[in-house]
Design brief:
single chain; 146 residues; alpha/beta; Rossmann fold; 7 strands; 23% helix
Amino acid sequence: MREIVCKSEEETVQFAKQLAKQLHGGELIALFGGMGMGKTAFVRGLCEGLCYPGEVSSPTFAIVQEYRGGRLPVYHFDMYRVTDWDSLYSTGFFEYLESGGVTVTEWSENIEGALPDTYIKIQFRLGEKDSERVLTVENENADFGN
């Protein structure tokens, strides 16, 4: 486990770009933290690090956004409105996990009981200043078998 202090949104993006270099496909990155903590900025950086050429936006109303065209496909979920197993199954979440891309979930605290044994957990919290975020990263070097 390690902590990273990001003093700006750009530092969050840069951290995600560096993490993207380590990905091979098949990973699940579970993001935890409240509204406005920088989760979507992190996903934007991850996609930039995987050379995705398009725009990245929060999938709040779509539940999942697919970003294809980079080194690996990224499946970006917003689990904010997922409240039970039926709604989780209806998102296609489990099928995406087996697709060989990188699955990223915002609001992972809502589905924590459904997360597989191996995933990268990133907890976002406010730093000392309003612009700072502290990211706690667990299982970063997990072997995903790819």
